[in-house]
């Protein structure tokens, strides 16, 4: 049997919904969004949720681990990272100042020791949200000193009286280190959250000498090609179908075999059959989207229905969950952005961003652009192979 590893970015919440349907709560390892957690009481847990990059594989049995992930269009990924950082940071504007924020953070930290993990514990948001939070408070303080009450925004991505404009954000040292080419560095295992001792030095060499990035890109391409499955956020439905038919079908088959034989079930419980799903990125003022994921994806019915699960039923359950999740995320975003009105991040607002800024983002993410183009090609091939297998199965 295999282990499953999903380096989780925000876009991977959809895969997480699938995995929650495939595994029971008792098979889930302690959540590891802030750091790797191993519970001796659950030595054979099969679903591990984490925000680590590919270097996490150094902590897992490679011969028993299959990796799956989802890639996103690099331009959209930068937009999303900027928007989400601002959205979460804006929730703190309920406080009068940063001193009040710090006081409440200490109280919240004590509560989280028993209640879970905050967005502020999770990479990369533990860096990006405080950065945007300080920026929002500084600009609000400046407006109050000027007595500026009414604001007009021609573009939600360029309202310097309220928040750091996108064109300024993309050139900031923090964005250069953490945001740009994030997919390539994550798959190469070279983020600032890496388990590799040399990661920091290598990453900064690439930032300084751009030609070295080609070597990192080749590593990322090879790892991507070797993955059991990867999807594309922009091809949501196709990716979901492929995930269900490749990963879902394998796990369902394993469940069926386990259920049909007491001997196999006993073996499955042994250390040789540990299935690990590693999920690595998302986000309350402190509590995260991941709690929402838990709410929409975990029901008592799942435990009962899992033994009778099919690929078709998995897709039906997924569609129901993803709809609830998106509604919840949308409502949360609306409430957060009210605090920085008239800023409102929408598809229409994105279309108003000057082309020169979009070209700068593409240039700053050249490795990710090339990796994504490569991924699109491989994805199309995989989709063709899957369709062919399904046709053969029917005939």
From TrEMBL:
Keywords: Glycoprotein, Membrane, Transferase, Transmembrane, Transmembrane helix. The keyword Phosphoprotein does not apply. It is found in: Membrane. Residues 33-89 form the Sulfotransferase domain. Residues 279-301 are annotated as: Disordered. It is a single-pass membrane protein. The keyword Membrane applies. It comes from the Eukaryota. GO terms for molecular function: heparan sulfate 6-sulfotransferase activity. Residues 279-299 have a biased composition (Polar residues). Its EC number is 2.8.2.-. One of its GO terms (cellular component) is membrane. This is Sulfotransferase.
